[in-house]
Amino acid sequence: MRFLLLLVLPLFVRGESPKMFGYVASPNFPQGYPENVDQSWELRVPSGFAIHLTLVHLDIEMSEGCSFDALNVSTDDELLATLCGEKDYEALRVEVNPKLQSQFGSLTLSFRSDYSNPKRHIGFSAYYTAVDIDECEETATCSHDCNNYIGGYYCSCQPEYFLQEDNSTCSVNCSGQIFTSLSGSVSSPILNGHYPENSACVYQLEVDEGFQLIIGFTGIFDIEGEDGNCIDQLRIRAKNQIFGPFCGKVAPQPIKTNSHVAEILFNTNGYGTNTGWTLDYKTNAKTCPNVVTANSVMKPDQKVYQYKDIVTVTCSKGFEIVKNGVTKFQFESKCQKNGEWSNVEICQAVECGEPNDMENAITDFNETTYKATVRYKCNDYYELSSNNTSDTFCSADGTWVTNGIESELPICIPVCGKSNLMSSVQRIFGGKKANEGNIPWQVFFMEPRGGGSLISDQWVLTAAHVAEAETLKMYAGRINTNGPEGVELHAAEKIIHPNYEIHSSKPQYNYDNDIALIKLDEKVKLGPQISPICLPKNKQSDELQNGKIGLIAGWGVTEERRLAQDLMYAEIPVENMDFCKSVKPKSSKVKPEKFIFTENMFCAGMSGTDSCQGDSGGAFAVPDMNTDDYHIEGIISWGIGCGSYGVYTKVANYLGWIEDTMLQNQD
Ligand SMILES: *[C@@H]1O[C@H](CO)[C@@H](O)[C@H](O)[C@H]1NC(C)=O
Ligand SMILES: *[C@@H]1O[C@H](CO)[C@@H](O)[C@H](O)[C@H]1NC(C)=O
Ligand SMILES: *[C@@H]1O[C@H](CO)[C@@H](O)[C@H](O)[C@H]1NC(C)=O
Ligand SMILES: *[C@@H]1O[C@H](CO)[C@@H](O)[C@H](O)[C@H]1NC(C)=O
Ligand SMILES: *[C@@H]1O[C@H](CO)[C@@H](O)[C@H](O)[C@H]1NC(C)=O
Ligand SMILES: *[C@@H]1O[C@H](CO)[C@@H](O)[C@H](O)[C@H]1NC(C)=O
């Protein structure tokens, strides 16, 4: 039983520790092997060695294909030989043994016999030895040189290369270099005309903060790969940005890194004969923005400002720096290494403040800073004093400027000379009742009975002999002497022409300079029924040629020989003074030859149409040829009698006096 059991179990000799040599033989050698053997041997030698098996005896039952009894020799699952039959030592030596070598450190023998052996066979015997493997020939992966030794090998590298930690790859130590000067050049390592394989080069560029690296490629450029499919590659890393990978034969465009630190990474694989690359780097000082602050100019004026540049910033015209209540216009700023300007201040628009209100106008403005505009719009019945008046601007000095004149406002002056009478073509001789607005400048003097003319909203022009009365009671806008239309005017000042001779005795013969100005205590509100008449345009008026028609009005004595209740008006021509001189007085007390005629007077009238007592002080109004606006050429002054010709004060002669007087007495 014991024997049988042995036969059934296959016998394995496994896990034997490696030996440099050993002996192995079939069971029961040399007495002959038993039936039903199934045994294997795993022969092992130290690593770095192969096993060579040398059969000394071989006597195994011969069968077709060794199908009965057989010895298999295999290594790493590769069957080296299936043996049976009988071979002498010489045959074994020549035919069999040379085949029996393992690739590595183990060799497996399997021996099997069947149940019947007609003849006794002694089996096999063999010894094995460890033989050196030449790994350099077989398996070694040295990137450069391979060196075999008994039981192993080692890799070694050519000059300039060193062996990496995998003990087989040779590469160049191209890392660790740091470039700190402001410009320079870096090249790939070159050995034997090309860059080394298996390299991972890292070059550091590190210049002062405040500078920026610009990398250009001027020399050779030849890296394995093309069109972005890089086998070897050059990359540049700066500020979390990677430029590349670059390869091929076309050098990349210059690279602005915007950084003062960059890493040049060059990786190569195991093969290739490309030449490599050279780069030149330079530095730009970091640039600052072209504008330190808005609304300013910088000196010096440069296209580019860089680290350490200093500029003087001056606010543009109309802008200023206000800080802690202090105003200034300039500051110095320095381009810092972070690319920002130092101590930036803000140039803000100059403030003009609220514009003054203007009398008789609406003030329209939206802003009050430099270049802001104020638009004054005169109320109805007023107009701007000069027709070139433009808007008022906030100037760079912080003042409001009109027509180039600082702090000056345009003035709204009353529109003058407007009458709602039909055009002067419709000449009506003889007194006619006036309607409201026909003669809006007409002032009714209730005391003394007479007339006057508004020449502004605060001045009345009348005859001196009217104004000389002690009390004055005046109305503007009045048509009927009993009212109620119009407003009462109150004199603040009364200025009689200084050359007018005041007479106490009647009749008065000298009416030279019969002109007076009355300043009202307040401005009269203008409207369709009350508005001034224009002054004559100039002193040398040619308006008073004979035949020139003027409009006269008043509440004076009419043909019916009594004072009128309604305002009457008439249009009369200027006539030669002789007409006035030749009028016959009605009263014998009046001595016509005693009357004084001067250049300050003119004569106007016609038979049946004249001014008379009670009309004194009113205007002889002439419409402008172009505009139809009435201007006052004369003041009804005196006459030798009523009903034909009267004498008028020639207002043009007093234009200077009127303007000066009004100016000197303005509020
Ligand atoms: C030897 O190898 C052959 C072919 O693989 C196989 O048929 C035979 O059974 C093997 N003999 C032994 C003893 O392992
Ligand atoms: C390289 O060789 C050293 C010493 O010869 C050994 O300690 C190390 O394990 C080896 N490295 C590799 C990756 O085989
Ligand atoms: C590579 O060079 C750097 C400096 O040049 C050195 O510190 C480093 O040890 C070197 N490495 C090898 C593996 O030689
Ligand atoms: C103020 O703003 C209004 C509305 O935009 C505009 O109509 C007006 O002309 C402005 N006034 C000035 C003086 O610019
Ligand atoms: C107003 O303008 C006209 C033409 O533009 C000019 O002839 C006239 O003299 C101006 N008048 C004043 C008062 O500026
Ligand atoms: C506008 O009128 C003023 C006087 O009112 C004068 O000094 C100025 O020169 C005039 N400007 C123009 C552009 O006519």
From TrEMBL:
Which part of the chain is the Peptidase S1 domain? 428-663
Post-translational modification (record): The iron and 2-oxoglutarate dependent 3-hydroxylation of aspartate and asparagine is (R) stereospecific within EGF domains.
Q: Which PANTHER family match?
A: COMPLEMENT C1S SUBCOMPONENT, COMPLEMENT COMPONENT 1, S SUBCOMPONENT-RELATED
Key word Electron transport present in the record?
no
Query: Which residues are Ca(2+) 2-binding?
Result: 132, 135, 148-149, 152
- What is this protein called in UniProt? Complement C1s subcomponent
Q: Gene encoding this chain?
A: LOC114657950
Q: Which organism is it from?
A: Erpetoichthys calabaricus
Tell me where in or outside the cell this protein is found. Secreted
Give start and end of each CUB domain. 13-131, 174-284
**In the record, what terms sit under GO molecular function?**
calcium ion binding; serine-type endopeptidase activity
